[in-house]
Amino acid sequence: MRPDWTQALGKHSRGSRPRCIALVDGTRELVSASLTELIELPDTVVNPADFWMPSGKPVARPSGWDDTLVREARLDHVARLLPATIRLVLKDWWLAVARGANTPNWDLASTCTIRGRQGLLLVEAKAHGNELSAAGKSLPTSANGWKNHEQIAMAIAGANSALKHATSGDWSLSRDDSYQLSNRFAWAWKIVSLGVPVVLLYLGFLRAEEMAGNGTPFRTHHDWDNALRDHATGVVDATCWNTPIELGDVPLYPLIRSLEVTL
Fold this sequence. Notes:
The protein has one domain (4-132, 186-259). A hairpin with a 2-residue loop joins strand 3 and strand 4. The model has no long low-confidence stretch (mean pLDDT 96). The protein has six helices and eleven strands. It is an alpha+beta fold.
């Protein structure tokens, strides 16, 4: 039986979402050590004083569940993740009309130290193969939505060109194909271009057997690694994984990691 706190997550009560929350539920010393171990890079550390979202399980109150701790990060909104100047640049880069519009949510985001500099850990988590979507961005339904649709296409195209130039690799990031994968790399690139090193960590949760009716759970790291690489073929340069992309003197680390978290 799943723990009661997952009820507060509604339709997200299974799979990767509750596991991300369980991963950051604990003392600051324990969570920071767990995230550092997960990253597994000699020059990157999450310290107890760092800030991460989500930051713990929902709390039962007399009035119902308090979901403050489980909220996911939008990088243009959270002051403790990035300075105001960078957050404003990110919003203007992604959106032509910010009013009523959204920027991507991240499964887990944390400040950290990378090569001695303040950086960001950005986590995209999956628990089964069907969560790896090749769909493009959904079409808008308003005039402002169309303006943002075009702005996002230009933002992703710019990231794609920059990554091609930096790596001499084969990149095809696009608004209209594998949009989630494309926007993750585009945002990571943009933040690095603004001087903040980034670890972009794709996390496969292993043996999430309650998800078997939705898709095939990843039972080994090999399962997850193969599924992600297959999904990214033709979109992300195949040689980029688990090695730094140097953008000037600021690194972007695209990592593939896996973990079993029991609920």
